[in-house]
């Protein structure tokens, strides 16, 4: 390289240097922006899945309310001349407890037999959900509501006569505004489109009634908002001016919800990603400028040294002044680099925290799964208590109320464990009687066991089986294993559940085996993967998190959970736990 030529063309050298730094900074910004969009998209997808699960879970209780209440004796008695007042009182109480707008029962011809009160939708017999219920299936629809409810969901459950034909339909009306009440205004912006592309449910009230049209949105007032879609790698960035409460530039994530026939859309602000990319490009640009400045000053110093050789005495003061300026400039560059490095460290810490929050957001999808079992037990004991009160057996009702209190305490302990996990301080393991945990789980699942006709083979071990663990979390694992076994044997001719506890004193372990007579495990290597499930979508099925959560709980106790197929058919799950130190 001809250094003398570069020194004579300072202007050209400066222009080339600035152009190179600008191009390098632009490339780093683009790369950093794409890298930052990855975690942002993952977090957005997690938030969208969480919002979707929350909406589906909220609607699930009304779906179960319709399916379970339609078989109530008070409604079945209406076909035999039973009291309409009793049925309407039951419907009113059930609607008040669940938060439904109204519930009414009609016969197959469309005649109203009982109602919880309030306005009724128009022309119910010709509605799609009522006609579907007459075919024996669960009718689901959404649209305009009666009375003050502007947007509602309809669930229509059929009632079957002893001969098998549909003789009545129970319709439950749910106000969508009630479902939005707890998460309205939360971040990020999320909305759910129905099959016509209209916003039906959202946490941004101003978007209600908007309809997707081409590349934009059409508001109820008739104004058309055009959006600009920008593709950055595999990410879709949307620029819009819909509302001041929605980011002007947002990363759009979508998810199909076939259970409620809707599409979820989430708009997450990309400004953090742009700031992160800007900091990266600024740091690289500062580093490049620092290196080039060093090169520049090296050339200037060489030129100064050459001039000093020719006129040492005349250039002493100038040389001193040049060196002082160079040192000052170097100190400024060092300070700027230190500031840039500190900014990078702060940004990295923020990204780590964002990743942690994303992981916690994914785990919170399992909250409904963990609390569902105590809630179902509370509902079962509440129904039993009400039945005992009707039969004049207050002592049995008091027993069921005591069990409800125990289940509420158990839910409190579950929430305590979730809170401890969020603080990265899970509760320590302590001494727990494994046989007692198994018997509590069998008692909790007794109603389902009886309803499925499953034969349970359980024998309490001769010597105490004291292990190190947490009672609530260990009970969750055992209940999940029993529940999965019942699901696997559903529809089978021979349903047998075998539970045994054994000791391995040499290894210091207590082993619980759970065997079923079902068809076995289709893919044993994947059963502990999150969201893996072989069950079809339906009101009774979970989200594929049970075994994954159970595996993590057992690993936290220092134990091991395995699942295999038996040679003669069926599946076997083995739970190995450490013996308590006092008995090891």
Structure description:
It is a single chain. The protein is α+β, with helices and mostly antiparallel strands. Among the domains are: 70-179, PAS domain (Beta-Lactamase, 2-Layer Sandwich); 183-269, 2-Layer Sandwich (Beta-Lactamase), CATH 3.30.450; 428-578, Histidine kinase-like ATPase, C-terminal domain (Heat Shock Protein 90). Helices cover 49% and strands 21% of the residues. It contains 14 helices and 21 strands. It has a six-stranded antiparallel β-sheet with strand order 7-6-14-13-12-11. A five-stranded antiparallel β-sheet has the order 2-1-5-4-3, with helices on both faces. Helix 2 (10-69) runs parallel beside helix 8. The protein starts with a helix and ends in a 6-residue tail after the last strand.
């Amino acid at each position: 390289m001809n250094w003398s030529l570069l020194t004579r063309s300072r202007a050209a050298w400066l222009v080339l240097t600035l152009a190179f730094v600008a191009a390098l900074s632009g490339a780093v910004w683009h790369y950093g922006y794409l890298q930052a969009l990855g975690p942002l998209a993952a977090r957005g997808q997690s938030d969208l899945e969480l919002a979707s699960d929350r909406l589906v879970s909220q609607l699930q209780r009304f779906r179960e309310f319709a399916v379970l209440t339609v078989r109530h004796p008070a409604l079945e008695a209406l076909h035999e001349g039973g009291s309409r007042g009793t049925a309407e009182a039951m419907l009113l109480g059930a609607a008040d407890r669940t938060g439904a707008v109204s519930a009414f029962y009609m016969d197959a011809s469309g005649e109203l037999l009982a109602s919880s009160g309030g306005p009724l939708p128009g022309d119910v017999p010709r509605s799609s959900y009522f006609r579907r219920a007459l075919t024996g299936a669960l009718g689901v629809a959404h649209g305009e509501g009666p009375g003050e409810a502007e947007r509602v969901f309809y669930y229509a459950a059929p009632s079957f006569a002893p001969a098998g034909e549909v003789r009545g339909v129970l319709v439950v009306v749910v106000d969508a505004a009630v479902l939005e009440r707890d998460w309205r205004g939360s971040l990020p912006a999320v909305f759910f489109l129905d099959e016509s592309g209209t916003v039906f449910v959202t946490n941004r009230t101003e978007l209600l009634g908007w309809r997707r049209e081409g590349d934009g949105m059409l508001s109820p007032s008739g104004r058309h908002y055009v959006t600009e879609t920008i593709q950055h790698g595999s990410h879709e960035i949307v620029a819009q001016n819909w509302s001041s409460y929605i980011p002007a530039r947002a990363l759009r994530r979508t998810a199909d919800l076939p259970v409620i026939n809707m599409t979820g859309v989430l708009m997450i602000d990309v400004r953090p990603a742009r700031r992160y990319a800007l900091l990266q490009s600024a740091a690289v640009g500062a580093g490049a400028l620092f290196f080039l400045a060093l090169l520049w000053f090296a050339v200037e110093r060489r030129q100064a040294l050459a001039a000093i050789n020719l006129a040492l005495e005349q250039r002493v003061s100038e040389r001193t002044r040049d060196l002082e300026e160079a040192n000052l400039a170097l100190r400024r560059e060092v300070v700027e680099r230190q500031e840039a490095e500190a900014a990078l460290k702060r940004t990295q810490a923020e990204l780590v925290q964002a990743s942690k929050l994303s992981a916690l957001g994914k785990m919170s999808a399992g909250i409904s799964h963990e609390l569902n079992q105590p809630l179902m037990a509370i509902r079962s004991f509440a129904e039993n208590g009400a039945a005992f009160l009707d039969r004049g057996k207050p002592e049995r009702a008091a027993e069921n109320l005591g069990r409800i209190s125990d289940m509420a305490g158990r839910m409190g302990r579950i929430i305590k464990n979730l809170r401890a996990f969020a603080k990265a301080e899970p509760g320590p393991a302590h001494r727990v009687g494994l046989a007692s945990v198994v018997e509590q789980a069998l008692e909790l699942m007794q109603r389902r066991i009886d309803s499925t006709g499953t034969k349970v083979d359980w024998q309490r071990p001769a010597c105490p089986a004291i292990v190190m663990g947490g009672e609530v979390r260990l009970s969750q694992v055992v209940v999940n294993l029993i529940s999965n076994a019942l699901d696997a044997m559903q529809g089978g001719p021979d349903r047998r559940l075998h539970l045994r506890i054994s000791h391995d004193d040499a290894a210091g372990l207590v082993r619980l085996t759970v065997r079923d007579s079902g068809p076995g495990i289709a893919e044993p290597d994947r059963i502990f993967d999150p969201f893996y499930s072989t069950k079809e979508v339906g009101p009774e099925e979970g989200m594929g998190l049970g075994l994954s959560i159970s595996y993590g709980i057992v690993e936290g106790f220092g134990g091991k959970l395995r699942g295999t197929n038996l040679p003669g058919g069926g599946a076997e799950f083995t739970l190995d736990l450490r013996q308590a130190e006092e008995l090891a």
